[in-house]
Amino acid sequence: MRSDFRCYNLLPPYTNTNFHLPQSPTQQNIRFLLYTTANPSSPHLLHSQDARTFQASHFDKNRATKIIVHGFTDSGSSSWIHEMVGKLLQKNVNVIVVDWQTGAKGPNYFQAAANTRVVGADIATLILTAQSLGAAASSFHIIGHSLGSHIAGYAGEKVHGMGRITGLDPAAPLFETYSERVRLDKSDAAFVDVIHTDAQPLHEAGVGIRNTLGHVDFFPNGGVNMPGCPAEKINWTKLLTGQITTVTSDVACSHNIATRYFTASINDNQFQAFPCASLDAYSKGQCTSCGSGCNNMGYHAHTSTSGLFVLHTAPSYPF
């Protein structure tokens, strides 16, 4: 095991994973895949502790860097990731895909949730290595889906001056009711924006967090039952009892569609969102004007306004 990934325990606040300790980066086979405009389809493999792998690649320290992190049972080769990479490269940025497929595999959700701590620490090490070559912490933006959102939080907690984190329907099971130390929160980066798409109340078994987490939190369609999605076939009970081996769109459409909303927001849809005092106010039809100031869900979210925002989306791309 790498020397800086040895000291993990289950003392508070890390009591959320049913006595599962995280596996090492080697056991999880964590890979960092760099895409740039010079290599848009053939990624360069970076090593978090080896600056030479950056120097041998097309990594540009003067460009912004987007880091994409998948969630439970997913992988770095998923179609939504390739689609997002392509759109991001149009912005002339470095794009790093974090593939922790082995550590994220089902059906043991407890182990995958525990593994997020080490994946986040490895990403932080990667960023620190890039900083040693002259990259600024503020130029990094981590985009995490589901468990990947909390991984982003762990990374941001360890990187002083982290620029931005976007949480795409952060996973609720084993995180929502626990300390901010074990989940994404707005202290993890200079700007944290969150898109909630499967935020059913706990008793209705939603798998996305319902509580606000960031500087800005977007709840398209009230955060539940996304247009074009069938009823969810995944819930907390199935996750925690090992009945889920893959979180595909046919069983978790509303949970997964957050990734497509973000991809669409890069170039195809500004997703204007209205400020709202609460989801209850939204359900009463009270949030239909810019009032104190609108914001844009996704890539173009900004810091000029903060709080909870709502909007309606269409059932098909670009929504």
UniProtKB/TrEMBL annotation:
It is found in: Secreted. This is Lipase domain-containing protein. It comes from Pomacea canaliculata. GO terms for biological process: lipid catabolic process. Residues 20-304 form the Lipase domain. Keywords: Secreted. It comes from the Eukaryota. Its main location: secreted. Belongs to the AB hydrolase superfamily. Lipase family. GO terms for cellular component: extracellular space. GO terms for molecular function: lipase activity. The lineage of its organism: Eukaryota, Metazoa, Spiralia, Lophotrochozoa, Mollusca. PANTHER family: LIPASE.
